[in-house]
Amino acid sequence: MKNLGILLSGRGSNFEAIAKNVLAGKIPARIAAVISNREEARGLALAREMGFETRYVPSQGKNRETYDQEIVALLKAFRVDLVCLAGFMRILSPAFIREFPRRILNIHPALLPSFAGLDAQKRALEYGVKFSGCTVHIVDEGVDTGPIVCQAVVPVKDDDSEETLAARILAEEHRIYSEAICLMLEDRVGIVGRRALRKK
Question: What pLDDT score was predicted for residue 176?
Fold first, then answer.
């Protein structure tokens, strides 16, 4: 059984969706650890309530490399095979990424490469796009630039607010993140150039 390591900073809704699918047997893995840089993160409290191993690792006063070394050591101690970022509000250092090559997934609330970075829904609305969505990608050393594993399209309504659009995108995030995790765990993703291609 493969081990997942979840990194989060906030409410943990994507973590919760993943956890429910793991517990239901829909994801062929176990959650080995849930780690947060914020002690008050709802996702961390939720993980404790669900009976998972949790760790709070404060980042204040530490440089990125030092902090990342601590997280990598924890993930390795828990024998994590695949790292899943679920609202982890830190940019990983190149050294961290090299420790888990092509074994870190992230979810972004836009159709990458459009609207990478923060405030994706707000910027999509301001731009006037007719479709938005979400993307699960393999993390590389850029910000939201890694090979795309899964995407889901969400139409933008004329009366959408940032909140209503975000809510509809979030429902799709919960669906495709688990799908992408299964593909990775089953070794059904091949990388050609910067493309993530599904194996038969």
Answer: 98
Two tokens, residue 149: 């594993």
CA nearest to 177, candidates 152, 145, 147, 159: 152
CATH number at residue 24: 3.40.50.170
Question: Residue 200 above 90 pLDDT?
Answer: no
Residue 47's CB is within 10 A of a number of other CB atoms, namely 25
Number of domains in the chain: 2
Q: Three-class SS string for 153-166?
A: EEECCCCCCHHHHH
Q: Could you tell me if 122 and 92 lie in one domain?
A: no
Per residue in 66-98, pLDDT (tens digit) is 999 999 999 999 999 999 999 999 999 999 999
CA atoms of 120 and 195, how far apart (whole Å): 22
Pick the catalytic residue from 27, 100, 108, 109: 108
> What is the span of the domain harbouring residue 96?
1-101
* H runs (alpha helix) in the chain: 13-23, 42-49, 64-77, 94-99, 120-127, 162-185
Paired tokens of 37:
């840089």
Q: Is 108 assigned a catalytic role?
A: yes
Q: How many residues does the chain have?
A: 200
pTM of the model: 0.96
Q: Is the pLDDT of residue 117 over 90?
A: yes
User: Average per-residue pLDDT in the chain?
Assistant: 97
Pairing of strands 148-155, 189-192: unpaired
User: Do 10 and 87 contact (CB within 8 A), yes or no?
Assistant: yes
